[in-house]
Amino acid sequence: MDTFWRLLGGALAGTWTPAEIEQHADRVTAGERVEGELGVVHSEQRHRAWLSANERRLQLRSRWRRFFEDWDVVIAPISPTVAIPHDHSYPLTSRTLTVNDSVRPYTDQMAWMGLFGVVYLPATAVPVAIHPDGLPIGVQVVGPFLEDRTTLAAAAVVESLTGGFRWPPGWDPRDAKGTAR
User: Fold this and answer.
1) Alpha-carbon distance 81 to 103, whole Å?
2) Residue 174 pLDDT greater than 70, yes or no
3) CB 116, CB 123: distance < 8 Å
4) Nearest Cα to 145, choosing from 120, 177, 111?
5) d(CA 8, CA 53)
């Protein structure tokens, strides 16, 4: 995840001015903790640090390539929770979510996505069940680099085994005119 956060931070910093990047870099170099927007902790990195993170990404890609020599797909969580209410408060680093009665950082929602996304692996989300609260539970089917069709085919198998998508209880998929929303 450190590799994911470093590379994401560098990408997010693309919207900053050179002066803003230098300001953050100076603060971090001075040992000051930088908080705020998602990725700001790693947005201040110099190019050498980004190159190092990118090298780690390439090493991880090589490991995944070897893994997929023996396995077709990985089935993994999409998120550590079912759907949560949207939180648009600022800064993002102050947001939280609850996982198994434990308060966690809001950015934990990105952990499973980051694990596979950082190395460009295709993933297909598929619903597998309904939580007792009525919210859908899904998994992601992750496959080898450039094998999107493999994840789609495997997701279709998972969907056929689990019953596929079901409307949450009490939710009417039709509006007043009887057409799908």
Assistant:
1) 12
2) no
3) yes
4) 120
5) 10
pLDDT at 158 over 70: yes
Of 138, 139, 141, the closest CA to residue 151 belongs to 141
**55 pLDDT more than 60:** yes
- Within a 10 A sphere around the Cβ of 181, how many other Cβ atoms? 7
Q: How far is CA 172 from CA 102, 127, 167, 175, 181, in A?
A: 33, 18, 8, 8, 10
CA nearest neighbour of 116 among 78, 154, 166, 82:
78
Both tokens of 59, joined, read 């090493």
The kind and range of the H/E element at 68 are none
DSSP state of 172: -
Write 83-88 long-range contacts (CB < 8 A, 24+): 83/135, 83/136, 84/109
* pLDDT at residue 85, rounded to an integer: 76
- pLDDT, residue 38, reads 45
What's the rounded Cα separation, in Å, for the pair 103 and 96? 6
pLDDT of residue 162: 92
